[in-house]
Amino acid sequence: MPNGQIRKALSGFYYVYDNGNIIQCRGRGVFRNRGESPLVGDFVDYTVEGENDGTITVLHERKNNLVRPPIANIDQAILVFSIKEPDFNTILLDRFLVVLESFNIEPIICLTKSDLMDEKMKKTMAVYISDYEKIGYEILMTCKDDPAFHEKISPVLKGKTTVLAGQSGVGKSTLLNTILPSLDLKTGVISDALGRGKHTTRHVELIEVCDGLLADTPGFSSFEFDLMEKEELSSCFPDFVERQDGCKYRGCLHVNEPKCAVKQAVELGEIKDYRYKHYLQFYEEIVERKPRY
């Protein structure tokens, strides 16, 4: 039985990549009966029916999957944040980082519009960049018409399945147009390939680029903590994880507990105060979330 990977899902069909060929497949009814749904990024087994048609018979175990957008087996996410217009926003960045950590997706921070910085902004951003690099996050910087960006981004994409995420207006489209010329596609074709053409249904698709796979995912602009419990939150802050073994109480939530190593690190400036404030805000959000039935 051949196997491959779903690279695109559209109008009830799944387009499975197998050794350079794309096979148009349907999903088996058994998936619907089990409440399962094949996703872009899934590794699958399929049976061949005709020259380029088939039926997906087996879904292999996923290492992760997102609901919005529906995509599986993601290695990393490039979080696109502008420095200005809109202004750099640490609470939104931390929200993205926390949710990606919870799905075991490696985040890479890409800061755009660096050409719009004045001297004061350069100093402010240098501090933030240092803070996040110390935590262990990789940071790329770019601006419009950056001739070196393709060289910066190519090794990051190589051999990985990557999603792009970011608010509208942060320069995501400019970034895509920088990355995708390696496919020799014109802008209009890029729009269609990414489900953005005027008459194209918006869909998720993995595209081969820089020896990796890239998905620009519609609807991937904000995150909620729908699936997270309050006990899991601190494990999504790597700077907290480093210190939590020093807490007096096992399972410390770093909120009201005495002799908390995380709170002590905040007081000493080893964990940034704004990161801890964001943690408390996310914690409250999870606690106040209405239960799902």
UniProtKB/TrEMBL annotation:
<feature type="domain" description="CP-type G">
    <location>
        <begin position="63"/>
        <end position="223"/>
    </location>
</feature>
<feature type="binding site">
    <location>
        <position position="252"/>
    </location>
    <ligand>
        <name>Zn(2+)</name>
    </ligand>
</feature>
<keyword id="KW-0378">Hydrolase</keyword>
<keyword id="KW-0690">Ribosome biogenesis</keyword>
<dbReference type="InterPro" id="IPR012340">
    <property type="entry name" value="NA-bd_OB-fold"/>
</dbReference>
<keyword id="KW-0862">Zinc</keyword>
<feature type="binding site">
    <location>
        <begin position="112"/>
        <end position="115"/>
    </location>
    <ligand>
        <name>GTP</name>
    </ligand>
</feature>
<dbReference type="InterPro" id="IPR004881">
    <property type="entry name" value="Ribosome_biogen_GTPase_RsgA"/>
</dbReference>
<keyword id="KW-0963">Cytoplasm</keyword>
<keyword id="KW-0694">RNA-binding</keyword>
<dbReference type="Pfam" id="PF16745">
    <property type="entry name" value="RsgA_N"/>
</dbReference>
<dbReference type="InterPro" id="IPR030378">
    <property type="entry name" value="G_CP_dom"/>
</dbReference>
<dbReference type="InterPro" id="IPR010914">
    <property type="entry name" value="RsgA_GTPase_dom"/>
</dbReference>
<protein>
    <recommendedName>
        <fullName>Small ribosomal subunit biogenesis GTPase RsgA</fullName>
        <ecNumber>3.6.1.-</ecNumber>
    </recommendedName>
</protein>
<feature type="domain" description="EngC GTPase">
    <location>
        <begin position="72"/>
        <end position="221"/>
    </location>
</feature>
<feature type="binding site">
    <location>
        <position position="247"/>
    </location>
    <ligand>
        <name>Zn(2+)</name>
    </ligand>
</feature>
<feature type="binding site">
    <location>
        <begin position="166"/>
        <end position="174"/>
    </location>
    <ligand>
        <name>GTP</name>
    </ligand>
</feature>
<dbReference type="Pfam" id="PF03193">
    <property type="entry name" value="RsgA_GTPase"/>
</dbReference>
<keyword id="KW-0699">rRNA-binding</keyword>
<comment type="function">
    <text>One of several proteins that assist in the late maturation steps of the functional core of the 30S ribosomal subunit. Helps release RbfA from mature subunits. May play a role in the assembly of ribosomal proteins into the subunit. Circularly permuted GTPase that catalyzes slow GTP hydrolysis, GTPase activity is stimulated by the 30S ribosomal subunit.</text>
</comment>
<feature type="binding site">
    <location>
        <position position="254"/>
    </location>
    <ligand>
        <name>Zn(2+)</name>
    </ligand>
</feature>
<feature type="binding site">
    <location>
        <position position="260"/>
    </location>
    <ligand>
        <name>Zn(2+)</name>
    </ligand>
</feature>
<dbReference type="InterPro" id="IPR027417">
    <property type="entry name" value="P-loop_NTPase"/>
</dbReference>
<keyword id="KW-0342">GTP-binding</keyword>
<comment type="similarity">
    <text>Belongs to the TRAFAC class YlqF/YawG GTPase family. RsgA subfamily.</text>
</comment>
<keyword id="KW-0547">Nucleotide-binding</keyword>
<dbReference type="InterPro" id="IPR031944">
    <property type="entry name" value="RsgA_N"/>
</dbReference>
<comment type="subunit">
    <text>Monomer. Associates with 30S ribosomal subunit, binds 16S rRNA.</text>
</comment>
<keyword id="KW-0479">Metal-binding</keyword>
